[in-house]
Sequence to fold (393 residues):
Amino acid sequence: MEFRRISATERTATMYPLQSYAFLGSPSPEGDEAAYERRNGFFETAISIVAEEDGTALACGASLSMRQNVRGKVHDMAGIASVASHPSARRRGLVRGVLERLLRQARDEGATVSALYPFRPSFYARFGFVGIPRHRIAQFAPEGLSHLTRAVLPGAVERLTMRDGFDEWQGLQQRLLGERHGFAVFDETRAAEFREDKRWMAIARVDGEVVGAASYRVTAYGGELLASNLLTTDPVGRALLLQFFGRHVDQVARVRVRVSSDDVPELWGTDFSVTTEAKVDQPSHSGPMVRVLDMAALTGTAAGDGDVTIEIPDDDLVGGVWRLVGEGGRLTVTKGTGAPAATLSVGGFSALLYGVLDPVEVGLRGLGQVDKSATGPLTSIFPRQMPYICADF
Ligand SMILES: CC(C)(COP(=O)(O)OP(=O)(O)OC[C@H]1O[C@@H](n2cnc3c(N)ncnc32)[C@H](O)[C@@H]1OP(=O)(O)O)[C@@H](O)C(=O)NCCC(=O)NCCS
Fold:
């Protein structure tokens, strides 16, 4: 068995057969090799690794070059995707071999955190990943936004094609990357594919500054307006986009828009009927998972006060004893020397870092053992704060 990093152009011969069989209906015309080949250029900055036997690829995976904000610090992020193995080669540890090499290579090239969308979380938990919230879908009839239809707001929305709105949309994403915990973006090479998407782009501006954006499409006259993430910098941006969607009242029956776990659509209006749903159902509706790849890189993360020594056993990338000191609003991470007051799996530590579990929950979930003396400092250093990854991959 040979594990080999391949170039983007080699993806068609090696990864396409594995991916099309794993992720598309078959046998059917859905798998289109020529279309896959045309997309290879968007994966030039990705790390793609295959496991080969006698020259045939039996397992594959890729790490996309992305960036992510974790508690105020922007990291290079390994976005794991395209993981598949040949059915007759499954359960032989080939994907384990691919994933371990991918994470190591991504770390060597500067990625300090990683994220993915699992087909089954328990599989990726073996590799140190832990769950974070899935986006919500808010569904409502546009009549519910009638209070906004005639409102005079301090800005305007322009409807553009994706191609024309793409740069402003990307610009807003870069801004939110710097501001929003958990937010992740693709690099330019991977993002370029979306420029050709057949979607409208609603751009909200105040005095020329972009304060909101959402791509969307209309399914039919009398049908649905399906919008992607409601990206906004402030309540004015959100009100502008909602007003724009509400003005489709005589055109569509329903609006469906993606929102984060800390959005509360029922507060968007009085007498506003809305259903907000986060459907998690493997393998096709999964919540994202994350893990840390480099402990020293966490120095500088926004943190509360506290001083605690922890141990992460059995991990090639972040295993060891670490001293975590939160002081003056910032975290410092150094190699620890004293006795650890908590033993955490990578997933347990990542859950604290990303703000999704508190130290007691980490213990209850079997992700670590936290002495009473460590509960206070860990809670203080890593207060609960829900991340919103936004990107899909
Ligand atoms: C999921 C898939 C990639 C697993 O590949 P594989 O080659 O069988 O995986 P491995 O043999 O390397 O298994 C790695 C580890 O996960 C475990 N594992 C395998 N399948 C699992 C499952 N369904 N649930 C939980 N753990 C699982 C193995 O026991 C092994 O554990 P260990 O190394 O700690 O002993 C493969 O079944 C596949 O291609 N499925 C269809 C496509 C897909 O779902 N891809 C994932 C997209 S996110």
Q: What stands out?
A: The chain is about 25% helix and 30% strand.
